[in-house]
Structures are given as C-alpha cells and as structure tokens.
Amino acid sequence: MPLPAAWRRSLEPFLEVLFPTKCAGCRAPGAIWCDGCRLRLVPVTSLVCLACLRVFPAGGDGDRCGPAAPHAWAVAVYRAPLDRAITHLKYRPDARLAQALAQSMAEVYDRARLSATCLVPVPLSRRRLRQRGYNQAEVLGRALAGLLGLPSLPSAAARIRETGSQVGLEAGDRWANVDGAFAADASLVRDETVLLIDDVHTTGATLAACSQALSQAGARRVLALTVGRA
Q1: Which of 39, 78, 198, 220 is packed most tightly, with the most Cβ within 10 A?
Q2: How far is the C-alpha of 11 from the C-alpha of 8, rounded, in Å?
Q3: Residue 28 domain-assigned?
C-alpha cells in the first residue's frame, strides 16, 4: 500500500541520504536534471507541419498549409544527454524530472508565442499502460499544465486500436502502425485549441494521427510540443 504523502515527505531526507539523487542525464550526484546537462541541449529552432510534414524555420512561412494546420515544436534534439533523461522518465514516473523538462517546454511555448486552451497528452495503449503503470506524456503534461495555468485533459484522447512499439520501425511502417489508432472526446475538445504533449517527436506519425483525431472531434486547432525531436 502506498505511503501517505505526509509520510513520504517526512522520509525524503532519510531516503536522500541512503539513495542520493543523481542526474538523469549524466548520473552526477545532486539534481535530477543538472545545469550541465541542460546547457548541453541542442535547441530545436524549427517547427514541423503535421499536415504535410514539411519543416519550417521558426518565424518562417509555417502557415502555408493554412492558419489551422497542426504544427509541432520541440525543446531540443533527441540525443545525449536528453535521450537518457527521457528514457529515465519512460520507466520511472519521476515528478522532479518531469517538472524540470516541463520548465524547458514552457520556455519554448512562451518563446514561440503559442496560445492554447488545454493540454492533451498522447495516450498509451491499454496494454502498454498496464505494463508501465503510467503514461510519461501525462506526467509531463501535468507538470506543464501547472506552469502554464492550463487544464490537462488526459481522457480527451484514447488509443482505440492496439499498436506495436514504434521503436525500430521505418517511417512508412510507423505511419501504418498508428493510422486510425486514436479517437478524441468531442465533449472535451470541441472548439478548443489543444496543446498535444509527448516526450519525443520521431517521424511525426503518432502526433499527426492523434492531432487528426482531435481535429475530427471538433478541436479548433492542434499544436504539438515535445521534449525531444529525433
């Protein structure tokens, strides 16, 4: 049975002595995401149109597909040390790491002058959720929602078809894997500008399929934001 929150807080100093915090990126003792790793990130300075998958420079002509086209932004290139931090978050629901990464996501949100009315994390399949016990995109979304003052709606999108892992698949196979895999709740997203949250943008197949489901459910527009972009 999980310990009550007050007990956990009282035990934290003792646990820190027994199991000191190490950086998820470089394993140095101290913070869960150290300043050195944060400064090593390679910022992503472009956006991707999820309708046509073209890449545009930030502040460029990314609206060529229309003002309502879904666009995707990211914090940094998916490579060391960010890849290690995201792997850590995939298998440990570490609220401290999520908060640190969400802070960088909030900075991108502000810098790009994005404007959303709610956040929706990309959902996991039921099978993967049972195996892992949580959705890392939902953990990130909850942290980011607190920073942006927006509601997080984890039940607004669902996987309606079981999909295999995207890891190791070629681009075409990734698209086929998630085609028609998502549905959205119109009662939650109709007329909303949705900020779709995930940890990594690889080919964009998952983000595009999920954004399409949200648009079909009546979302006014879908914007996507990830921590890493491959």
Answers
A1: 198
A2: 5
A3: no
